[in-house]
Structures are given as C-alpha cells and as structure tokens.
Amino acid sequence: MVKRTPFYNIHKKLKAKIIPFAGFEMPIQYPYGIVHEHRKVRESVGMFDLSHMGEFIVRGPNALDFLQKTTVNDVSELDVGQVQYSNMCYADGGIVDDLLVYRDEDYYYLVVNASNIDKDYDWLHSNLIEGVTLDDVSDETALIGVQGSQSEAVVQKLMNDNLSELKYYHFIHTEIDGTPVMLSRTGYTGEDGFEIYFTALDYAEEIWEKVAEAGQEFAIEPIGLGARDTLRLEMKYPLYGNDIDKDTNPLEAGLRWVVKFDKGDFIGKEALEKVKAEKIQRKLVPFVMDGKGIPRPHYKIFNDGQEIGEVRSGTMSPSLGIGIGTGYVHRNFMKSGTQIEIEIRDKMYPATIIKPPFYKEGTVKSN
C-alpha cells in the first residue's frame, strides 16, 4: 500500500505533480517546474516535504557501543545537540545506507533514506546488542525542510531561540506556536537551511502554513523531489541507489572522511582496511559536459575509445547551464582534468572530470 505524508492534501491543492517514490505518493514538482524551484532555493528560499524519510530512536546503556559497531564514523565524538553524517556498511564494505546520527540527552536519533527504512531497521535489529532498544518512529514523524540563503530569516519568525547561534550540523528542541519540534541546521542542497521534525501530525498542515506565511516576505515556494535531486547533485552529495549502494564502498565513493579506522571495531572495517591497503580500483568522480549532451544513469564512460566506467547520476545543471554527472571510473582515469567521453544514444560526447562540487556559491554555514 502506497503511503501519503501529512502534507499530501496541501500538495494536491498546490497542483503538484505526484509520483510514487519510496513507497509514498510524493510531489516531484509544482506548476512552475523543477528549474524554477531549483533557482528559488539557490536565490532565496524554498520549503520541502521530507516526511517520507525514516527516523529511528536508539536508547539504552549500550547505545553508543551499538552505533560504534554499526556505523563507520566515530559517534563518541558527538556532543549533545550535534549531528553527524555517516554510513552503515555490510561486512564486505558495501554500503547499507548513508544516514544522519543525532545525539540527544539520553538517546540517539537516526535519519535514514526513505527507500531503505525497512531494510535499515532489519539490518540494525539483526545487529542489536544487549542493553539497546531500537524503535522505528518514521510513521509518527513529519519533516519540513527550509533551504536557501533566507532560511534563517524565515524560521526565526517562528520561534524565540536565536538561530544565529545554532551551528551547522547542530540541533535544538523548541516549539512552533506551542507545538514541540526538533530543529536542526542541516540539509542536502548546499544552501543554509533547517529541518523541522515533529510528531504532532494533527497540526502538520497548520505548521506547514505557518512556515509558508513566515516565508511570504521572501516569496517562499514549495519544492519537489525533482529540484531536491538537482540541488544535491550540484554539490556532489551522494544519492543512495544511484551513487552509493551495497556494491560500492565509502572509500571509492569519495566518503573516506566519514570512515574512522582508529575508533575501534565496526562492521565492514576489515574489508575497508583491505581496500585501503590495496588502493581503490575505481572512484566516483564528478564531470561536466564540454558542450551539448545530458548524462543519465548507466550511460557508459569512455577514454580514448576504452570503456572505463558508467554514469551514476546526471542532469542538466539549472545553476550552471551545462550537463553534469557522476560516475565510477577506473583508478587510472580519476584525476581532475581527465578528458572522457559519455556515450549518449550511440554517440560520443566529450566531458571533463573536475573537482567537486559543481556549484561553488552555496550559502551553507559550516561554522
């Protein structure tokens, strides 16, 4: 059975194009289209329904030990009120999912990809240790994203807390007009932004309208999944199912920075240490088209007539006006500046591997 978020009726009223996505009926775009929505976030502010994402609560005296075992980053480095990006890996180093880990006073809060909720829960549950409980609160949680250079000005209108003091990848518990919410300075667009979590689903539409009203000064608009994808790709943020999956590992995916080999044992460590010692055989690289052509997933990548990899994500960049993409290529061809060709409908189109991100003017606050 396909699910609907608490904001489904609002999306219908706003004449969104609704598609099935990760078991939900979700808005992919609104009447003005993906490019318009993308630019709205880059230039001002937009709001997203992210309620399809998964949320788990991990509690108990051994919660830290459990997360140290099941994630590759060092959870012990988190202070209360801090958020961490991480990966979960299988024993062979393949990626179960990428996720956010929130450290609260007496529990940890995990945010996982919508398409992986059941799989992630089952995998985590199969690795539970004594003194730990794992609860899936996804269906009880609504999530609104507010992203863009004006996002702080919008969200500040809704609460008394001084948001200029809330650092990137940190969160607070607060309220919107009496409704308790968890507010984090996080996002997946490359712009400054916030994510608003709450469980008072009966007030979901009311909170959406309050955010929309607070953003009227900046002509805030709802943003669909289509623009969310182009925004994240311009930053080379990985998408599970495209750029990363069970057949890729964090080292070749360019996520070496989240793998803390010195923190102790964790699932996948031995396999990843072997990859590290032997050096990666391929790498996920960003590339730009040198002229015409829009890369799409699974298009083949060539160098001087030799097939060297395949595209994983690709689009026409609304910000740059050129085709951009990511792809895994053989290690001999992964350096920035390498000339490649993308096979598009039996024709070769030139492209160049670059250093990420594609879009370098984002307003995200990394203080």
Label this structure with key terms:
367 residues, Gyrase A, domain 2, 2 domains, alpha+beta, Alpha-Beta Plaits
SSE layout and pairing:
Elements: E1 3-4, H1 8-13, E2 17-21, E3 24-29, H2 34-43, E4 46-49, E5 54-59, H3 63-70, E6 83-89, E7 95-103, E8 108-112, H4 117-126, E9 133-136, E10 142-147, H5 151-156, E11 171-176, E12 179-184, E13 193-198, H6 204-214, E14 221-223, H7 225-234, H8 269-278, E15 282-289, E16 300-303, E17 306-316, E18 323-330, E19 339-344, E20 347-353
Parallel strand pairs: 1-3, 4-14
Antiparallel strand pairs: 2-3, 4-10, 5-8, 5-9, 6-7, 7-8, 10-13, 11-12, 12-13, 15-18, 15-20, 16-17, 16-19, 17-18, 19-20
Helix pairs in contact: 2-7
What report would you give on this structure?
The protein has 367 residues and is α+β, with helices and mostly antiparallel strands. It folds into 2 domains: 3-51 and 141-233, 2-Layer Sandwich (Gyrase A, domain 2), CATH 3.30.1360.120; 52-136 and 249-278, 2-Layer Sandwich (Alpha-Beta Plaits), CATH 3.30.70.1400. It is built from 8 helices and 20 strands. The strands form 4 sheets. It has a 6-stranded mixed β-sheet, sandwiched between helices. A 6-stranded antiparallel β-barrel has the order 15-18-17-16-19-20. It has a 5-stranded antiparallel β-sheet with strand order 6-7-8-5-9. Helix 2 (34-43) crosses helix 7. The longest helix has 11 residues, at 204-214. It starts with a strand and ends in a 14-residue tail after the last strand. The model has no long low-confidence stretch (mean pLDDT 97).
